[in-house]
Amino acid sequence: MFPRIDYVDWVLPRIDATEHDLGSSDLHPEGPTDSDHVVPPRLVDRETPDRTLRSLVADEYDVPSEQVLVTAGTSSANLLAAATALRRRGGDHDADRPGSVLVEKPGYEPHAATPRGLGANVDRFLRTAETGYDLEPSRIEAATRPDTLLVTVSNRHNPSGRRVSRERLAECAEVAREQDAYLLVDEVYAPYGRRAVHSEGHAFGAPTAAGVEGAVATGSLTKFFGFGSLRIGWLVADESFVEHAREVSVHLSDVARPSRLLGRRALDAKTEFGAAGRDRCARNADLLASFLADHEHLTGEVFEGCPFGFVESEREGVDGDALSEAAEAAGVLVVPGRFFGVPSGVRVALGRPTDEVSASLEAFGEAVADL
């Protein structure tokens, strides 16, 4: 039985009902929203390239198409990755031993809840503020056990925004392989940054785990590109893993053909959309850094070019729930850290256009000033 996702239950009714949205982490487009149109306005006048969506994703990750599975968003990709890893032990089906999944903490709630719904045991390992939420292979090694089949992390880390290198991801994948486990890296926030890096081992201008032995990378058009209405995601892994994931995927809804066609348009224009996204990331990350510098009672680290971060109060007795409740009373949405497993603060996400973000941060600062 799949458990309820407390974060989803909490946040969905609040997003549209809140005047100041510092909860949405996807980069909302300027102008008309996609929800009001059959075709997202940014894609209306664009040609559909004569290439498959799968091949466009494969080219970006510099892997063969056989190593890509297009999915109905990243949540579906992550579910398929967990189900596939749990289905396989050394390539054999092992229905009687579902195994364990090791998940980072703090972390995105569905990363733990989804494999638990698949019948897996879920263990956690820590990413701590003391190390800047670094991803440490030694912590993964210490927390794995003989039946660990999947290790799940996010890069950028959700909720802190910390991004680690491809080399560090490869070290973590090697630790997982020693237990015959895969490393799942949710990369929806990886492209968030001030600049793009175009070199081997990078995709959408950021380090990727795709192509690393024993790693599974997932991503989508939702966060960085702001095309959540298309429900386009993908899974990138070795060919054997992808083939098994494809077998599992028949139990889920396929991606609608209109979404595939529009996704091709979006990926064909990734350079243009990516530049706009990085400009937004840079502006909004600077706003968040300035906001924290101006409010002595609030603390948090803004990682390079990342328009979200984990914010705490330095005042005794003021935790994430207190910050969130005071903000909500003033019409400001921030996400309590308890949904990520760290109740001491809140995630502040600046996905809205910069002028909206500026007003929202001002309202947030006023709401929590006297706590």
Automatic annotation (TrEMBL):
Please give the organism.
Salinirubellus salinus
What are the residue boundaries of the Aminotransferase class I/classII large domain, all occurrences included?
64-362
- Which GO molecular function terms does the record list? pyridoxal phosphate binding; transaminase activity
Protein name (database record): Pyridoxal phosphate-dependent aminotransferase
Q: Which UniProt keywords apply?
A: Aminotransferase, Transferase
Q: Which InterPro entries match?
A: Aminotransferase_I/II_large (IPR004839), PyrdxlP-dep_Trfase (IPR015424), PyrdxlP-dep_Trfase_major (IPR015421), PyrdxlP-dep_Trfase_small (IPR015422)
Q: Give the region (Disordered) as residue ranges.
A: 21-43, 90-116
Q: Per its UniProt record, what PANTHER family does this chain match? A: AMINOTRANSFERASE FUNCTION, HYPOTHETICAL (EUROFUNG)
